[in-house]
Design a protein that fits this description.
- The protein is α/β, with parallel strands linked by helices and 200 residues long.
- The protein folds into two domains: 49 residues, Helicase, Ruva Protein, domain 3; 143 residues, Dna Topoisomerase Vi A Subunit, Chain: A, domain 2 (3-Layer(aba) Sandwich), CATH 3.40.1360.
- 46% of the residues lie in helices and 12% in strands.
- The chain has nine helices and seven strands; from the N terminus they run H-H-H-E-E-H-H-E-H-E-H-E-H-E-H-E.
- It has a five-stranded mixed sheet with strand order 4-3-5-6-7. Strands 1-2 form a two-stranded antiparallel ribbon.
- A hairpin with a 6-residue loop joins strand 1 and strand 2.
- The termini are far apart.
- The protein binds zinc ion.
- Zinc ion binds next to helix 4.
């Protein structure tokens, strides 16, 4: 028998993240109640703000505080003519941490996966086609993950770029097949961006 309905609700709600089961959720709930009530309230406030206010940048689909993100607004990055296509916002963060790329991004939020109903529309590829048609982009860098789905998505996007005669490149090896950008160390990622090669 449960001692508190609120406690049951908290443990249930904490299981929002895959990998956190009932036991881990209960441990977190007890830690918050025993010693960390102030931090828990702070977390609740920050979480609410983040979930209510973070939107997708209309230009690159990375997370922004509403409207165009800081990267898209940056004049130097805009005028670079470079556009790097990645699967997730975490990948943008990984490339930014590598510190050698100063162009713009386009975030797919996934990869083509017909079985899961994820097609061109879900990845925002109509918007990407619009950007490619604008004439602002001189080189499109494919930095999808080296997985079967990531490679298939890259080929699809390559066809869009060819239609607009935009130069295509792909990050060099260094990212292991089946892996993702996010898990690669900064030096390796910086090197694979610098040594990117034309995509045929
Ligand atoms: Zn943006």
């Amino acid at each position: 028998m449960s001692s508190s309905v609120y406690l049951d609700q908290l443990i249930e709600a904490l299981q929002v993240q895959p990998g956190i089961g009932p036991r881990s959720a209960a441990r977190i709930a007890y830690a918050l109640l025993d010693r960390r009530r102030a931090e828990g309230l702070q977390l609740a406030a920050v979480l609410k703000d983040a979930l209510q206010h973070i939107e997708l940048c209309p230009c690159c689909r990375n997370y922004s505080d509403g409207g165009e993100c800081a990267i898209c607004r940056n004049v130097k990055r805009r005028s670079s003519g470079l556009l790097c296509v990645v699967e997730t916002p975490a990948d943008v963060q990984a490339v930014e941490s590598a510190g050698t790329y100063f162009g713009r991004y386009f975030v797919l939020h996934g990869h083509l996966s017909p079985i899961d109903g994820i097609g061109a529309a879900e990845l925002g590829l109509d918007k990407l086609a619009e950007i490619l048609a604008s004439g602002e982009i001189t080189e499109l860098i494919l930095a999808t993950n080296p997985t079967v789905e990531g490679e298939a998505t890259a080929s699809y996007i390559a066809a869009l770029a060819r239609k607009q005669q935009v130069k295509l490149s792909k990050i060099a090896s260094g990212v292991p097949f089946g892996g993702n950008l996010e898990s690669v160390d900064e030096q390796t990622l910086a090197a694979s961006l610098e040594q990117r090669r034309p995509f045929a």
